TrEMBL record:
Organism ancestry: Eukaryota, Viridiplantae, Streptophyta, Embryophyta, Tracheophyta
Key words of the record: Hydrolase
Protein name as annotated: Amidohydrolase-related domain-containing protein
UniProt entry tagged with the keyword Ribosomal protein: no
Species assigned in the record: Kalanchoe fedtschenkoi
Matching InterPro entries: Amidohydro-rel (IPR006680), Metal-dep_hydrolase_composite (IPR011059), Metal_Hydrolase (IPR032466), MTA/SAH_deaminase (IPR050287)
Domain Amidohydrolase-related: 84-447
């Protein structure tokens, strides 16, 4: 628990469950901490201090020097007693508007997952549903130390934006965009490429750089199977004009590659075709990217495309992504959870653990030999922090703890049964830490969680509302979950 002065609080009665406690003193000093900076020199301060002035880091050094230089002017001086400070984690692929659909699509293939569960669910969402779903998702993200996320494409971005503003997080929001394909709900099937581009430009105009600069609007492409060439090329050009990113699911399953080969006359699949039409650019965040060959890895690397690796979702229905090969080729690979219906757990802490184990195990499967050094702990930690920031094109301000960067940080209490004893700090953060070890989260210089309690809303109220909203939404969508066992 932090021993800081009481924060000024106010209630925003226009939003459900809001109890905003976000005003922070001008100068805050955190000291007597292990600080893992994730900077270019990989500095770790065993007894470090950090100074936050408004929304930025204005000092980072040994505790003694920080106290000497800033102690007299600090409004808050907080002794962390050896706890660990990390940059806030960055989740580079999550569907926040799918949170109310947790558990509706377990143990099914991807096409069934989309056509029979997710599309009926999403097409029946209201803006209020999207808002509440994003709040619920945000609660789980914050508890796992996430301060910034990249929305993978969902419904009612306006609802997402309202939720992100209240949560106090940072986000790159994108609409789910499709203009063709089988199985689409009727209302979606009528959209043209022009409609899709106009909708996103309107969202960009209204919400980009809102919420004190914490929200950025990206362009979305759900997947190549639901995109005409007109949409792909118009999206590429619009993103260039707006100086923003594109978030797209890429090469998820063999069926996708085969369909591209059959209908678009290329010799392999999605990445090969995107390279052919000039879609691969450094502002593209490619999610999953499981079924790619060596030539396509080279295409991605040369274009500067970023990849979001989602270990749990990949193992559930997609397969082994060639993460080691992509990193070796110089591709920036980060971590995502995907949405609740394809993972169920929105914990980037879990994804770090899984990423290392899965990619070590893949070496046995692919090559018949073990490689315990595949994706070591320090690389996984980079994927969740600075490489995540690079993936969302925000690394000039977040992803590492450095002078002048935004004050996005988390505090980890390692003194629990899950982490004691610590012989190697970096190893323990990846292989031992649980979400429960994360006690405090700061984003943009404001505490959004302290003592494991989220300060920006009433969690219990949001959870209660989510239960009712989810049931009503599934009823509208006609989705029925059959009991798996003999329920009496």
């Amino acid at each position: 628990m932090l021993n800081s002065r009481a924060l000024a609080a106010h209630r925003d009665t226009t939003l459900p469950g809001a109890t905003m406690e976000t005003k922070i003193a001008e100068v805050t000093v955190l000291h007597n901490a292990v600080i893992v900076t994730m900077d270019s020199e990989n500095r770790v301060f065993r007894n470090g201090g950090i100074v936050v002035v408004k929304d930025r880091i204005q000092g980072i050094d040994q505790s003694a020097k920080i106290l000497e230089n800033f102690g007299a002017i600090a409004d808050h001086i907080i002794d962390l007693h050896g706890q660990i400070i990390l940059p806030g984690f960055i989740n580079t692929h999550v569907h926040t508007s799918q949170q109310l659909g947790r558990g509706i699509a377990d143990d099914v293939d991807l096409v069934t997952w989309l056509h029979d569960r997710i599309w009926p669910y999403e097409s029946n969402m209201t803006e209020a549903d999207s808002y509440l779903s994003t709040l619920l998702c945000g609660i789980e993200l914050i508890h796992s130390g996430v301060t910034c996320f990249a929305e993978a494409g969902g419904q009612h971005v306006s609802g997402m934006a309202r939720a992100v503003e209240l949560l106090g997080m940072r986000a790159c929001l994108a609409e789910s965009i499709m203009d063709c394909g089988q199985g689409l709900p009727e209302s979606w099937a009528k959209r043209t490429a022009d409609d899709c581009i106009k909708s996103q430009k309107d969202l960009y105009k209204e919400y980009n750089n809102s919420a004190d600069g914490r929200i950025r609007i990206w362009l979305g492409i759900r997947q190549i199977m639901n995109s005409t060439d007109d949409l792909l090329l118009a999206t590429r050009d619009a993103a260039k004009d707006l100086c923003t990113g594109i978030h797209m699911h890429v090469a998820e399953i063999p069926y996708e590659n085969q369909l591209v080969k059959d209908t678009r006359e290329v010799d392999h699949g999605t990445v090969t075709y995107l390279e052919k039409i000039g879609f691969l650019q450094k502002n593209l965040l490619a999610a999953h990217t499981v079924w790619v060959n060596d030539a396509e890895i080279s295409f991605l690397s040369k274009a500067g495309v970023k990849v979001s690796h989602c270990p749990a979702a990949a193992m559930r229905m997609l397969g082994f992504a060639p993460v080691k090969e992509m990193i070796t080729a110089g591709i920036c690979v980060s971590l995502g959870t995907d949405g609740a219906p394809s993972n169920n757990r929105m914990s980037i802490v879990d994804e770090m653990y899984l990423a290392s184990l899965i990619n070590k195990g893949r070496e046995v499967f692919a090559n018949g030999t073990t490689d315990p050094t595949a994706l070591p702990a320090e690389m996984v930690l980079k994927m969740a922090t600075i490489d995540g920031a690079k993936s969302v094109m925000w690394d000039n301000e977040i992803g590492s703890l450095e002078m002048g960067k935004k004050a996005d940080l988390i505090i980890i209490d390692p003194s629990s049964w899950s982490m004691v004893p610590i012989h190697d700090c970096i190893s323990s953060l990846v292989y031992c830490m649980r979400s429960e070890n994360i006690t405090c989260v700061m984003c943009n210089g404001q505490w959004i969680m302290k003592g494991r309690k989220i300060l920006t809303m009433d969690e219990a109220d949001i959870i209660s509302q989510a239960k009712h909203a989810s049931s009503a939404l599934l009823n509208r969508a006609g989705i029925k979950i059959r009991p798996r066992m003999n329920v009496l």
